Structures are given as C-alpha cells and as structure tokens.
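Action item from last week, closing it out:
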Amino acid sequence: MKKVKKKTVKVKKKTVKYKKKTVKKKAVKKKVKKKAVKKKVKKRRRKKKILMEDIYVILNKVQINKKKVIFITELEDAPTIENKIKDVELRYKKVEMKTQVVFTVYPNDTDYEDDYVLRLEILDDEIPDIDQIFG
C-alpha cells in the first residue's frame, strides 16, 4: 500500500461587511415580577428562670431603676416570691402556666425622698439657757 500524502490548500477568506441596521426601540413595559418576601422569623428568646436567692437582687433593681422587670420562676417557688413582692409593696402581675410562673414587677409611683429627709424642729422649751448648763 502506498502512502497518500495530504495536501493543504490555502483558501482566501472573504470578509463581508454587513450594514448596521438602526432599529427604533419601542418603549416596552416590562412585567415586574413580585419577589417572594421572606419573613424574618424571630427566634424565641427563652427567659432565664430565677432562683429564690435572686429575688432580692431583682426587687432592688425595680426599686432603684424604676423600670419594670419580667422574670420566670418554678411553680414551687412562686408563692414565696409572691409574698416577698407583697412585703416590699410593689405592684405585680402573675401569669401561671403548666410548669412555670411569669412575674412582671412594676415600680412604685410614689417618691420616697420625702420620707428620708430629717426635719429638725427646734423648740423653745428644749433649748437650755447658758446658766443652766453646769453653772
């Protein structure tokens, strides 16, 4: 068998120039697709259950900061905590659930500053004369 040699043939490429067509663009109203709005799901933040020893700290915060405080206790601790709140004479709201009790403690509206001011009244009867003092 004889080997056949392949010949390469050079062909000139013709370049064709196309005329650019100017096309008037019409104002087309595009249909706007409504995107599906994803609602942000808030993660439920669990409130920490407090113990009996923490109730004094919470009651002090309510009295000093004059802001309401919401806390959760177990069913067994709820009656004693309720008595502590009553002793301090604070307003509160109690919501009982199956396994826990939610307390909302509100500060008092009255100001105690007037109670702590000492009012000294000097009476004429109590002022000793100079001659009466060991004289």
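Closing note: Strands lie at 69-74, 91-96, 100-106.
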